[in-house]
Amino acid sequence: MKKLLLVLLLSIGLFSFKTIIDNNFTISGTATGVENGKKVLLQKQDETKGIVTVDSAKIVDGKFSFKGVATEPSIHFIELEKVQGKVALILENGKISIAVDKDSLQKSKIGGTQNNIELQNFNTTALKVQAKMMAFQKANTEKMTEAQTKKDTVVINGLMKEFNKFQTELIALSTSFPETHPKSFLSVLIVDNMFNAPEVDIQKNQKNVRTFRCLFKNY
Fold this sequence. Notes:
Layout lengths: L1 H21 L2 E6 L8 E8 L3 E9 L4 E6 L5 E7 L6 E5 L2 E6 L9 E3 L2 H37 L2 H28 L4 H10 L7 H15 L3
């Protein structure tokens, strides 16, 4: 009987300890090629103050980490000291990973938790579209300048039509994501942003909001 009670107490203790772990977040980061001692800033958007730093860590042997508790998922940013740009991630309880690319923060990779994996996949797809958009712009800048000088509306309209296809592709990526990922925190952010975009289908957006309310009504 005493042995059984001891087993039960140990089980309760392990469960309680696991609960504490599950309620915490850890960010394990790498920053290859960055010198020791350089600061990494963890930041968030404040409604009144703008971007504010909530924590900092120093890089040691190309690595850094943050630990804490996230009461709810929220967008945060990682910034390298004296390096322009930021890396967005979703701060939530669990083990988050980030590989910072010091030469191009846009190429940094996030993962670990489901929401951050989904954000990384979304960003990867969006960046491919943006790369095509930039390549088209670079290849046709001279042609557009010449057409504007000559006031050649046929060429101008044709180039704008082709360019707008990339924008349409990005919009389609955003509008379809909430439908295919209704439980994703990223979907909530996308739908919220869509209400400020006049080119987005409002009726479809309202449908997604109703879906979210049904999914999260018990939370």
